[in-house]
């Protein structure tokens, strides 16, 4: 799909939607989003999903038309300009026969697509979406998302659809239209119709465009979505409003009441470390540095990353074990952190309030003993049962570097990390053996 409005927030000073915040919002594949739209009574191109070359042939044959599009189902923007590890260029291709559908599907399925959003490792393509190719008169942009400034949903639209919305926002911000929705009062049909008029829909399409946008808002609310984005929303030659492409994100906090939607999650598209962390109720986000962080509490985690950077280091992750972690969860957290080959030091920073430092110490000792860690481990503990925790570590027989002072612990972590990095760059094998 084309890139989303969220990443364009920096170019829209009037919008305050937290562009730099890393959050876990469930994202589903395009073909699943299109199915949700269809159930809502929203018109989309006819199409079907295929997971083998033979299925792609059957889908294209069933469509019974010559002009079609095949799209790699990968949760990343820039698919059309991406490259597969099979050598195929472009994750969105026009096709003209079932035989072409099968040929391109076989070059996409089971291969990784690399785009500007996936990173060099790319993402695996396990399905392709084959749909009719539409020739349209005009293309528009439309989205519904949560806006912190208005403290509620907002409709965002533009007459310039089918292109990177970031570019539109940066080059012509006046082209970005907004309609805040009062979540208590609900939709004002006249206001939505006015938005459709400002977007440039022809008089023959105005009512249908209004209905489509209201239906999209209803979908947004009913499914606890954080984003419903249509790019492009099109006006066809026979004056029908069609949603040509769709991207929908959902609030993970609503999983308990949106189990059907959350069952559509494709974990093959996610960082396996984040998937593993979720199984143990750990909050993990992978970053680009070399110092693994294990902390309790989001605020302390952010402070820990800040002080690492202050001393010239780079955090490898955000990992919050929460306030009620068990020794098992701490052990699993160490497994996740140490699975990152870029990590050269692990810095554990715990303030025991609800959390017991003794439990953390038990998890640290279990992890250090079972994982055979060969990188430095720096531990700072303060708070509940800290003396018992220190005693456990001291009596464990493990070479764990401890410090009561946060600044000192961070400084040691950065220095040790640099030592390991220098050794690796010089192709020297340096091992920090924790068992004495």
List the helices and strands and how they pair.
Elements: E1 25-27, H1 30-39, E2 47-50, H2 53-63, E3 68-72, E4 83-84, E5 92-95, H3 98-108, E6 112-114, E7 123-124, E8 128-132, E9 136-147, E10 152-158, H4 165-171, E11 177-180, H5 189-199, H6 206-222, E12 225-236, E13 241-243, E14 247-251, H7 259-262, H8 272-279, E15 283-286, E16 291-295, H9 298-310, E17 317-320, H10 327-338, E18 345-352, H11 357-370, E19 377-383, H12 386-395, E20 401-402, H13 406-425
Parallel strand pairs: 16-18, 18-19, 19-20
Antiparallel strand pairs: 1-14, 2-8, 3-5, 3-8, 4-6, 6-7, 9-10, 9-12, 10-11, 12-13, 12-14, 15-17
Sum this structure up briefly.
With 436 residues, this protein is of the alpha+beta class. The protein has 13 helices and 20 strands.
What distance separates the N and C termini?
54 Å
Query: What is the overall number of helices?
Result: 13
> Structural class from helices and strands?
alpha+beta
Mean pLDDT rating: 89
| Number of extended strands | 20
Major sheet attributes: 7 strands, antiparallel
Instruction: Assign an overall shape.
Output: elongated
Radius of gyration: 25 Å
Helical content class: 25-40%
List the quaternary state of the chains. Answer: single chain
- Stretches where pLDDT is under 50 for at least 5 consecutive residues are 1-23
Query: Approximately how much beta-strand content do the residues carry?
Result: 15-25%
């Amino acid at each position: 799909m084309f890139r989303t409005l969220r990443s364009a927030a920096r170019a829209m000073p009037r919008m305050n939607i937290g562009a730099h915040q890393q959050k876990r919002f469930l994202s589903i594949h395009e073909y699943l989003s299109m199915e949700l739209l269809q159930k809502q009574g929203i018109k989309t191109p006819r199409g079907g999903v295929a997971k083998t070359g033979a299925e792609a042939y059957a889908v294209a044959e069933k469509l019974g038309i010559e002009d079609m599009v095949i799209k790699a189902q990968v949760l990343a923007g820039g698919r059309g300009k991406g490259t597969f590890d099979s050598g195929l260029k472009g994750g969105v291709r026009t096709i003209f026969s079932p035989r072409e559908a099968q040929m391109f599907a076989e070059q996409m399925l089971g291969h990784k697509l690399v785009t500007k959003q996936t990173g060099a490792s790319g993402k695996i393509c396990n399905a392709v979406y084959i749909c009719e190719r539409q020739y349209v008169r005009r293309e528009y942009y439309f989205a519904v998302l949560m806006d912190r400034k208005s403290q509620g949903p907002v409709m965002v639209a533009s007459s310039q659809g089918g292109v990177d919305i970031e570019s539109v926002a940066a080059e012509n911000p006046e082209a970005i239209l907004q309609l805040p929705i009062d979540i208590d009062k609900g939709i004002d049909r006249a206001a939505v119709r006015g938005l459709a008029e400002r977007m440039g829909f022809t008089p023959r399409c105005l009512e249908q465009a209004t209905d489509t946008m209201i239906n999209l808002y209803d979908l947004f609310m009913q499914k606890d979505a954080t984003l419903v984005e249509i790019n492009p929303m099109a006006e066809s030659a026979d004056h029908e409003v069609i949603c040509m492409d769709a991207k929908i994100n959902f609030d993970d906090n609503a999983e308990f009441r949106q189990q059907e939607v959350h069952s559509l999650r494709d974990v093959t598209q996610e960082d396996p470390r984040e998937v593993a962390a979720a199984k143990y109720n750990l909050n993990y986000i992978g970053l680009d540095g070399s110092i693994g962080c294990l902390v309790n509490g989001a605020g302390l985690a952010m402070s820990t990353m800040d002080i690492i950077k202050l001393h010239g280091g780079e955090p490898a992750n955000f990992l919050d074990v929460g306030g009620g972690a068990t020794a098992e969860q701490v052990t699993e957290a160490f497994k996740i952190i140490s699975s990152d080959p870029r990590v050269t030091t692990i810095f554990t920073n715990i303030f025991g309030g609800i959390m017991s430092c003794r439990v953390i110490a038990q998890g640290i000792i279990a992890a250090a003993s079972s994982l055979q860690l060969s990188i430095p481990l720096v531990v700072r503990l303060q708070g509940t049962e800290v003396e018992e925790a220190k005693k456990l570590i001291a009596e464990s027989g493990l070479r764990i570097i401890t410090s009561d002072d946060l600044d000192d612990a961070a400084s040691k972590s950065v220095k040790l990390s640099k030592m390991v990095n220098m050794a690796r760059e010089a192709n020297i094998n340096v091992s920090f053996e924790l068992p004495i």
